[in-house]
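Team,

Forwarding the record for the chain on the shared tracking sheet. I've put the sequence and predicted structure together so nobody has to dig through attachments.
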Amino acid sequence: MFDTVYDRRFTDSHKWDKIPEYSLSMWLADMDFRTPAPILDALRQKVSTGFLGYPAINEQYMETVLNWFTAFHHYNTEGISISPVTGIIPALSAIIQRYTSEGAEIIIQAPAYYRFMEITQNRTILFNPLKIDEDGQYQMDFEQLDSLLPLQPQIFVLCSPHNPVGRVWSYEDLLRIAEYCLENEILLIADEIHCDLVLPGYHFTSVATLPTRYLQNTIILHSSTKTFNIAGLRGGHVVVFNQRMQRELSKVFDLYGINKVNTAFLTATMAGYTHCRDWTISLNKYIANNYHYVRTFIQEHIPQLKTFQQEATYLMWIDYRALQISEDDFFSTLDRELIVSKGTIFSEYGKGFFRMNIACPLDIIKKAMQILHTQIHHL
């Protein structure tokens, strides 16, 4: 199911079009696996009706979404409100505009998904850098976080699971962050878009499992687009537990048209959350196998590089600082045969790292490792 190699060039793929024919594209967070069959069937059925007008978001849809998150992520549903939106980033941008003014301080844990920083709308970013412990794993730095309080931050953007470092945060981590935000009147926004992409042996804990008192100060963002490889359909959900906040965001989303979700996203999401649990489990097993192949290959053949324990997402974060070369020189070495993401797009705290998408057939992974090995061997 996941081993088939598809040629995605000239298919209007942002990831694959406009790159050299000899290159492997492993940068964008877009899987090279076909969307699950039940979703494709549901979309065909919808198109076959001949009617693609404005969609109605009915009770069955909302129940399907809620059932997925209560069954697999154990949501606390007390006072819950779920709002479909055109995308996580447009929603986050609108939330920032609604609850802060220009110049406000926003906490982001770095290295961080670059879109978080691009949409801050003239706000000031306060980085809370993740630190690497003695076991070589990223951890939250709560001491540094406390040092930011005199700057009076207004929003904390949490990425859970974390992109790009691949961590799933513990209940204790989430509780400390939620308590920090509540005590200091900081709005907690949790991007949980990768919550379904957790490797076997690890467990994702949602902020939605915290006690209700913390949820009153929390907004959760998630989407089916990463789970089922339907990013081109554009959509997501905003979850709140505070009725006042729900009313405020409803007005903002309506003003900017962020609540005008398209028919294809609704159809695909409902099919995915109804029929594709087993597919998702198989996907995570395949990604885990790819990860172990990459990690073993690097340990045995390119020991100058360092990998981290992958807990979630299909995005590997790899450390090349031991090569002691600049980012420009490193990427020049790859010579565009292997296209991965530069670490510095995830902030200055990504210097000396790169991010690689491993959601592709194992044959592609093997070719990528050979390219990496050959190019670094010639340094």
